[in-house]
Design a protein that fits this description.
The complex is a heterodimer of chains A (about 210) and B (about 230).
Chain A: H1 19-36, H2 39-55, H3 60-85, H4 88-110, H5 114-124, H6 135-165, H7 176-196
Chain B: E1 2-11, E2 14-24, E3 28-33, H1 39-46, E4 54-59, E5 62-63, H2 68-74, E6 75-78, H3 91-100, H4 106-119, H5 135-147, E7 153-157, H6 165-176, E8 181-185, E9 197-202, E10 205-210, H7 212-224
Parallel strand pairs in B: 3-8, 3-9, 6-7, 7-8
Antiparallel strand pairs in B: 1-2, 1-4, 4-5, 9-10
Helix pairs in contact in B: 3-4, 3-5, 5-6
Classes of the chains: A mainly alpha (about 210), B alpha/beta (about 230).
């Protein structure tokens, strides 16, 4: 599994559905849940989302991982509703609705290749051509945004190792400059690789930068 | 054939290439030289990543200044740090993205991706995150991502610098088996033993041009004679 929570290889039923219908179904379900504002509908969605993980070959542990990351927010929402609004059922509904929709969105991300998702976004961005936006660039920016997550982690890890190796303690702000420098270098190298691979086809002005 | 004619280039007031003229016709060409000798800049001029201040670099009728798109499709480039060359989250997607601009259609794209992954032993990793591969596998992925576009020439800028001996040999074997012309810029002299031609660079000039054994002997003596004053990196 990717450290950025992206595609996980599998063969369950969710893998056989194209990205567009999956996202559309999630959008419609979200709108219906918000419009209906019904406790039982929200609980049913959460139940279905939890059942979907093992059925879709994603594993129940991944669902648990999502809930573990979400629980502080769910707790805060539930407590706020109970204490300040006085409607504990409303708190339960909101928490179930939020958890259910996040679980479903995560299931879509896990079962859809990034390339397929980018194709979809590229198609969705096509109407923007009329106002000068290049759909392929929109898809590329999304891909690079996803790619940059492990890059930031690498830069942080390298800077922290250097910080510790020099025996520094208690001054974490010293990591900021090396992390930024590292990220700028990575960004420059990635930009150069994009041009070298012909992915950035706007090649009228080549880099005159240092190797 | 790659042709370099009177190429000079500077960064600010530091000259890194000084009137280099070469015809690169052989199947395997190695380029060696100390840090700061101008190797990386020369490598980058070959596919238009760097446009020289003076002179011209061309492949057949195409010029890096005027036909950048054609040049980049014909001259593949592999960097020393493969991690920066990986763009997409998974191995197969990273190989595939280089084919998008060729507009080959889904079936042909999938066929090429499958073929190149199998050929380079990466088919078992196709859905794995590229940045989690080992150093050698990352470099193989970088090579596969370039080779899938079927360039005529492959320029490698120190592709084994960050690799251990086993992975260096793996990359060496891969380069050995290629049909494409290979121009290899390296500090690893062992890689060049069976090359057709080796160039030695020093202070922005080609100071030796010959068979590997003679070039390596010349370079070794050059290094033994001591560092050139003013080298900065």
């Amino acid at each position: 599994m990717s450290v950025v929570g992206l595609y996980v290889p599998g063969a369950g039923p969710l893998y056989r559905v194209a990205a567009g219908p999956k996202l559309l179904a999630l959008l419609v379900l979200g709108m219906v849940l918000i419009a209906a504002a019904n406790l039982w509908a929200a609980l049913a969605t959460l139940f279905l989302a939890l059942v979907l993980y093992p059925v879709a070959d994603l594993g129940a542990r991944r669902a648990w991982g999502v809930l573990r990351a979400l629980w502080p927010f769910l707790l805060a929402i539930g407590v706020f509703q109970a204490l300040f609004v006085g409607e504990w059922t409303e708190g339960v509904r909101l928490c179930a609705q939020l958890a259910g929709l996040v679980l479903l969105a995560n299931a879509i991300t896990l079962s859809t290749r990034v390339g397929e998702m980018l194709d979809l976004f590229e198609r969705m961005a096509r109407p923007l051509r009329h106002v000068g936006v290049r759909p392929d660039r929109v898809a590329l920016v999304l891909a690079l945004t996803i790619r940059s997550i492990p890059m930031v982690a690498t830069a942080w890890s390298a800077a922290r190792d250097g910080y510790r190796a020099r025996g520094l303690r208690g001054r974490p702000y010293l990591l900021v400059v090396p992390v930024i420098v590292h990220l700028l270098r990575m960004a420059e190298a990635t930009g150069e690789a994009l041009v070298a691979r012909g992915i950035d086809e706007d090649t009228s002005a080549a880099s005159a930068g240092r190797p | 054939m790659l042709r370099i004619e009177g190429v000079s280039h500077s960064y600010d007031d530091r000259a890194v290439l000084r009137g280099v003229t070469l015809d690169l016709a052989e199947h395997r060409i190695g380029v060696i030289g100390a840090n700061g000798s101008g190797k990386s800049t020369l490598a980058r001029t070959l596919n238009g990543l760097v446009l020289p201040d003076e002179g011209r670099v061309s492949l057949g009728e195409w010029d890096t200044r005027r036909h950048a798109r054609h040049i980049r499709r014909s001259v593949g480039f592999v960097f020393s740090d493969a991690a920066n060359q990986i763009i997409m989250p998974t191995v197969a997607e990273d190989v595939e993205i280089g084919l998008r601009s060729l507009r080959l259609g889904r079936a042909e794209t999938a066929r090429r991706v499958d073929e190149i992954l199998v050929r380079h032993g990466l088919d078992g990793h196709r859905d794995h995150p590229g940045h989690l591969l080992s150093g050698g596998q990352k470099q193989l992925l970088a090579l596969a991502s370039i080779l899938v576009t079927e360039p005529d020439v492959l320029v490698c800028d120190e592709p084994t610098t960050l690799l251990d001996l086993r992975n260096t040999r793996m990359v060496h074997r891969t380069l050995d088996g290629l049909q494409q012309q290979v121009v290899l810029f390296t500090h690893d002299l062992d890689l060049l033993a069976d090359f057709d031609r080796v160039l030695v660079m020093d202070e922005g000039r080609v100071v030796f041009d010959g068979v590997p054994a003679d070039a390596i002997a010349f370079y070794t003596k050059l290094m033994d004679d001591g560092p050139t004053p003013g080298r900065t990196s």
